[in-house]
């Protein structure tokens, strides 16, 4: 019977039908190449592009109206405003811009309140500071939806609102409900 080097494994020794090269050093490069090829294909096929991620995880509120008729109780005022807001579920950040005009006097305070659906008064959760002491203007900011003071469930359920206070209307002159959609 022939003597085979250690690197060969003879499956059927009597007839020498099938031999395998068991020297694993010669197979290392092809195995690594196959592994990295499979890994890169998996990575490419499982990743969404940035636009898809934003579509899936960002909620918007565009030109949400602020008015005295949304205050509790409602009243008549010529003051108006709007809120542009977006919420990023990945970073848990609510960004907003408030635009207002026609207040009866300079703004004395502005807040985000909750939990309050339309027509329901709620406590102050966040004071906007320094809010412009003017009858018209803009204010921008952002806050973390931390899951404690502010929750994603209540934000996306429309249970928070923003309002602006004046000396003539210390309870709030205009109010806008945060209603965010995809």
Could you explain how this protein is built, in words?
It is built from three helices and ten strands, in the order ββααββββββαββ. The chain is α+β, with helices and mostly antiparallel strands and 182 residues long. The strands form three sheets. Strands 3-4-5-8 form a four-stranded antiparallel beta sheet. It has a four-stranded antiparallel beta sheet with strand order 7-6-9-10, with no helix packed on it. The mean pLDDT is 86. The chain has helices spanning 28-46, 50-57, 152-156; strands at 8-10, 19-21, 58-66, 80-88, 93-101, 107-114, 124-127, 137-144, 160-166, 174-177. It has two domains: 8-46, no CATH class; 54-177, Sandwich (Immunoglobulin-like), CATH 2.60.40.
- DSSP strand content: 35-45%
Question: Which class do the helix and strand fractions yield?
Answer: alpha+beta
What average pLDDT do the residues reach? 86
- Please describe the biggest sheet, giving its number of strands, its sense, and whether it closes into a barrel: 4 strands, antiparallel
Query: What is the CATH domain class of the largest domain?
Result: Mainly Beta
Rg (CA only): 32 Å
The appropriate CATH architecture of the largest domain is Sandwich
Strand order of the largest sheet: 3-4-5-8
Uncertain spans = none
Q: Tell me roughly what share of residues is in helical segments.
A: 10-25%
Terminal Cα span:
77 Å
Structural domain tally: 2
Say how many strands there are.
10
- Helix count, DSSP H or I runs of 4 or more residues: 3
Give me the CATH fold name of the largest domain. Answer: Immunoglobulin-like
């Amino acid at each position: 019977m022939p003597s085979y080097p250690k690197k060969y494994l003879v499956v059927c020794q009597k007839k020498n039908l099938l031999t395998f090269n068991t020297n694993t050093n010669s197979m290392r490069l092809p195995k690594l190449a196959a592994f990295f090829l499979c890994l890169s294909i998996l990575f490419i096929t499982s990743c969404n592009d940035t636009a898809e991620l934003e579509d899936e995880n960002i909620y918007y509120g565009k030109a949400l109206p602020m008015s005295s008729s949304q205050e509790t109780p409602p009243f008549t005022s010529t003051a108006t405003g709007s809120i542009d807001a977006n919420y990023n579920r990945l970073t848990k950040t609510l960004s907003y811009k408030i635009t207002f005009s026609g207040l009866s006097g300079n703004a004395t305070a502005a807040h985000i309140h909750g939990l309050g659906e339309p027509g329901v008064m709620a406590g102050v959760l966040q004071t906007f500071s320094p809010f412009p002491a003017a009858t018209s203007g803009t204010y921008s900011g952002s806050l973390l939806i931390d899951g404690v003071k502010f929750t994603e469930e209540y934000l996306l359920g429309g249970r928070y609102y923003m309002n602006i206070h004046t000396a003539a209307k210390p309870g709030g002159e205009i109010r806008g409900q945060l209603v965010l959609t995809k």
